[in-house]
Structures are given as C-alpha cells and as structure tokens.
Amino acid sequence: MKTVLITGAAHGIGRSIAEAFAAEHDNLHLICHTAQDELEDYAERLSFKYHVQCTADAVDVSDPDAVEQYYNDRIHSLDLLINNAGISYIGLLQDMTPAEWNNVIATNLSSVFYMSKHAIPLFLKNSAGNPGAVINVTSVWGQIGASNEAAYSASKGGVDSLTKALAKELSPNGIPVNAISCGCIDTRMNNCFDELEKEELAGEIPAGRFASPDEVASAVLKLSQMPPYMTGQIIRFDGGWV
Q1: What is the pTM of this model?
Q2: Could you give the C-alpha distances from 115 to 31, 60, 167, 177, 241, in angstroms and in order?
Q3: 42 given a catalytic annotation
Q4: Per the residue annotation, which of 42, 70, 114, 152 is the catalytic one?
Q5: CA–centroid distance for 120 within its chain
Q6: Where are the alpha helices (DSSP H) in 75-212?
Q7: What's the rounded mean pLDDT across residues 121-125?
Q8: Coil, strand or helix at 84
Q9: What is the per-residue pLDDT for 133?
Q10: Share of residues in the chain with pLDDT > 90 (%)
Q11: C-alpha angle with apex 234: 22 to 134, nearest 5 degrees?
Q12: Residue 28: domain span
C-alpha cells in the first residue's frame, strides 16, 4: 500500500489515475484547482468502493506559497507524486498576453518544480525499500511542438527536460523520475476541436483513434511498478502517432 499524491485529479486523466491507484488499495491525496466539491464527491466514492483513505483539496499548484502550505497542512508521508495538472491555450503566440503565457508556464511547468521540491524531502525519509518516485504527465507537443499551442508546447518541453535532469539528480537515492508523454486523449482539453477535426486527427494516428483516460491511467500505474533503475524516461503514449 502506497500513499499517492495526484494533481489535476478532478477530471480526465487525473480522475482515471486516481481510480487506478485506488483499485490497488493505495491511499490518495487528490488536488484540483476549482472543482473541489466535485473532487470531494469523487474521493468519497473511491474511499467507499475501494476502502482506502482519500483526501480532496483545492490547491493552486501554480502558486508556490499555496503548495508549501498544502504540504505543511496535509502531507506527512508520501510514496509517489504524479504531476498531472495542466491547462492549454489555443491561439497565435502574437495574440497571447504575458499574463496568459505566465499562467500556462506556471500551471504546467513551475507546478512540477513546486510539487517535487516538497515531495523530495518526504521521499528521503522513506525506508530504503521504498524511497518514492515522481511521474509527470506530459505531451508529445513538448517534443515536436504544435502550431497555435506554443506556450503549451514550451511548458511540456520544459517538463520533459526537468524530468530527465531531476532523474539524474535523484537516481543516487533510488528515486525514479519518469514521464508519460500523451498524444491525443479523449478529454475535455481536446473539446476545442469539433467532431470533424477530431476525425481528421484520428486519421493521422496509426492506431486510428484517440486514447481514453483510463488507458493513460493504466500506463501510469504500470510505470509506477517498474524497478527504480528505469528513470529519466519520456515514454510516448500516442498510438504510434509521433
């Protein structure tokens, strides 16, 4: 039984990841930004269904002070941090305001720094047999870039690089740091596309379809079960697209 902290857990991929680990009888700390009532209801259902401890909190992971306060108030031990929170911006770079740019970078990239910074000391307190781990949920756009999603692509590219660098930093302590790099997943974030656009995108994917959030959750769960020698990896989960 592990204690798992998941950001962006109210919807989509994060919600599915929460259930995957609850089904393994792991205790959960779930974070969202604004959908606290919905997340609390979900946490109660997971607790009842799987007989696990499950907390739900609204935390702005883009705010370092809020993250520090959350750890101080709520997190006293931790085995796995899953950095899943993310937002997108669709539009030309020239039309973005500095505030919009900073919001994407802070939510998608800086949050990984804030969350990991406070998780690492807890990992180092763990027994040698279970030193802890970090899994970041990122995007193929971080590797190849996407037109009209420059800020999102930049933020996810930063997460990829941070994953590799932090893995080297923590590997001597037996703490693996890896990432799942998602392609097209059937979540609210992709509702910016209409049905025709989704069909065209699916036609570009060798697998012929978008993945479900549950499939991503299964990949994250399996990654968490790998030996710690597997670290610093950006694992593409894209149906052969890239």
Answers
A1: 0.95
A2: 11, 11, 15, 13, 30
A3: no
A4: 152
A5: 17
A6: 98-105, 111-125, 141-144, 150-170, 195-204
A7: 94
A8: coil
A9: 97
A10: 85
A11: 40
A12: 3-237
CA–CA separation, 84 vs 6, rounded Å? 7
pLDDT tens-place string over residues 39-85: 999 999 999 999 999 999 999 999 999 999 999 999 999 999 999 99
Point out the least confidently predicted range of 21-25, 46-50, 129-133, 207-211: 129-133
What CA–CA distance (Å, rounded) separates 7 from 113?
Answer: 13
User: Which residue is it, tokens 């996407």?
Assistant: 146
Helices (H), 75-110: 98-105
Query: Is residue 141 domain-resident?
Result: yes
- 200 contacts: CB under 8 Å, gap ≥ 6: none
Q: What is the CATH number of the domain that holds 223?
A: 3.40.50.720
Crossing angle (nearest 10°) for helices 150-170 and 111-125: 20
Domain assignment present for residue 242? The answer is: no
Domain count of the chain?
A: 1
